[in-house]
Design a protein that fits this description.
Elements (H helix, E strand, L loop, with lengths): L6 H9 L4 H11 L1 H15 L5 E4 L6 H12 L1 H11 L2 E4 L5 E4 L7 H7 L1 H6 L9
Antiparallel strand pairs: 1-3, 2-3
Length: 130
């Protein structure tokens, strides 16, 4: 299961749309490792002059790896996080994540990060099954 959804939030979703704040709070509470990775990148991004921050540390366990994968592989979760933080998230593998300011998504660093070349250069045998 990707998220721990409270009965009240599930009931609200069954009746209609859930707002981003409620959804993001559910993500934060359900995926604390992923939340910590993303919020630390956002903090780094706020202090960055080049509009880019990334995270390259492998997760400490499979449980944390799963949280990061769930957060970034779900269009709804990733989109909610991007809207909440006002960034564009880019994801290469189980641990390589980057946050870009919206104006940087047309820049060279973003294009290089999301390119096939960038993906290939970020591979290593020890991360083959991540």
């Amino acid at each position: 299961m990707s998220l721990d959804v409270s009965p009240a939030l599930l009931e609200k979703a069954e009746r209609g749309e859930v707002d981003d704040a409620e959804f993001v709070a559910c993500v934060r509470d359900s995926l604390p490792y992923a939340w910590d990775v993303i919020t630390s990148m956002i903090a780094d991004l706020e202090g960055s002059a080049d509009g880019f921050a990334d995270h390259e540390t492998p997760p400490p366990s499979e449980a944390e790896r799963g949280q990061l994968l769930r957060a970034l592989a779900s269009d709804a979760i990733r989109g909610g996080l991007e809207r909440h933080f006002g960034v564009r998230l880019a994801f290469q593998n189980c641990h390589r994540v980057a946050a870009f300011r919206p104006g940087e998504v047309t820049g060279e660093r973003y294009r290089a990060f999301v390119s096939p070349r960038g993906q290939l250069l970020n591979q290593s045998p020890e991360l083959r099954d991540c």
